[in-house]
Specification:
Elements: H1 2-16, H2 25-42, H3 67-84, H4 92-126, H5 132-156, H6 163-182, H7 185-201, H8 211-220, H9 225-228, H10 230-234, H11 236-242, H12 275-295, H13 302-321, H14 331-346
């Protein structure tokens, strides 16, 4: 699994950027790397602190609110780019893509590990006599479903858009769920820290701060007072980082858009000549994900209900907050569906809920 994760980004670029010969996908990646670094160093486009209405490019400028995360990503790109040029024994563009693939691969592998240990924690809470055979079955299930989801999102029907945002938001989401299932003071401190960092990656990261009070509501049928204030506390770094952009938040096209978008599939296209293509996007980005939800549903499972509510929350946000064909944004609810399905297959009921 580690090898698959480390190699995934390289295979992704080869799969979708290897058709314009004689330019290789390595050279295209190098161009992409240089362009991202140039924008950062020049302070242009999404690094400016203003909003310019650009028809056909709606929602792209909301990435300006994610500048903290983008700074981390771009500085990593710059580090990779600089060091790849120092090695003269091999083409720099190949070294750059290899190093970047390893960087993203470590994050993807961490997501897989969190998936495995979350399921293991849930199994332990449901049955504390968990055996080695169960651990092996968990490993098989985690590996198969993780590979299936990553293949669907990054290879079979890739349409681009917000890869790094989705990968790192999923990483933080799975880390948060792991902390909640593991329990303990240290994990709760980590959970709060994750909640504060997640909105800096993408605005939907604020959802993580609601995971805990929803968990406790299902457990005790009441809200823990301090947990109700966690979303307010968690949003503070985001507010401090972006207070100068708040005046644009109500501008149609910055954080949200009520209009159709050129070269993008939106709900508006249901009533246009793009009707068939829009139905195709709805199938791959929505309907296909609800098939396991229906198949593996079990009645009277509060643990499964917990994940179902989180899945619905993310899909509602995706419905109104993104275009229809950015399938990479389905990485977060996709991981939740894997957990939801396992609960249904095993008919688990976590004692912490």
């Amino acid at each position: 699994m580690l090898f698959i994760c480390l190699n995934l980004t390289k295979e992704h670029w080869q799969n979708f950027n290897n058709f314009d010969r004689p330019v290789t996908f390595y050279e295209k990646f190098e161009e992409y790397l240089n362009y991202e670094i140039y924008q950062y160093e020049s302070g242009e486009y999404n690094w400016t602190r203003s909003y310019i209405n650009q028809p056909g490019a709606e929602l792209e400028q909301r990435e300006k609110t994610r500048w903290v995360f983008l700074t981390f990503i771009t500085k990593t790109m710059s580090f990779i780019n600089d060091n790849s040029k120092k090695i003269t024994a091999y083409p720099s563009e190949k070294i750059a893509l290899f190093l970047y693939s390893v960087f993203i691969g470590i994050v993807l592998y961490s997501i897989f590990l969190f998936l495995f240990y979350i399921i293991k924690n849930m199994e332990y809470e449901s049955n504390q006599n968990i055996k080695n055979t169960n651990v092996f079955n968990i490993l098989i299930y985690s590996s198969f479903t993780f590979i299936l989801l990553t293949y669907l999102i990054f290879f079979s029907h890739y349409r681009g858009g917000e890869d790094n945002f989705s990968i790192f938001e999923t990483f933080l989401m799975m880390w948060a769920i792991y902390s909640l299932t593991k329990g303990g003071t240290i994990n709760m401190i980590l959970y709060v820290a994750i909640c504060m960092a997640a909105p800096l990656v993408r605005e939907s990261g604020i959802f993580l701060s609601g995971f805990y009070w929803l968990l406790n509501y299902l457990k005790f049928k009441k809200f823990l007072t301090w947990s109700l204030f966690l979303p307010i506390f968690a949003i503070i770094p985001y507010v401090i980082s972006n207070y100068d952009l708040f005046k644009y938040f109500l501008e149609d096209g910055f954080i949200y858009s009520t209009k159709g978008m050129e070269a993008q599939t939106t709900w508006h296209d249901l009533f246009s000549v793009q009707f068939i293509g829009t139905l195709n996007a709805i199938f791959y980005n929505f309907i296909i994900f609800f098939v396991p939800i229906i198949i593996f549903y079990v009645r009277n499972s509060r643990l499964q209900l917990y994940f179902l509510l989180l899945i619905i929350l993310y899909f509602l946000a995706l419905t109104f907050g993104s275009v229809l064909d950015h399938i990479s944004t389905r990485f977060m609810p996709g991981m939740l569906i894997i957990l939801y399905s396992y609960i249904g297959i095993r008919n688990l009921e976590n004692k912490k809920i």
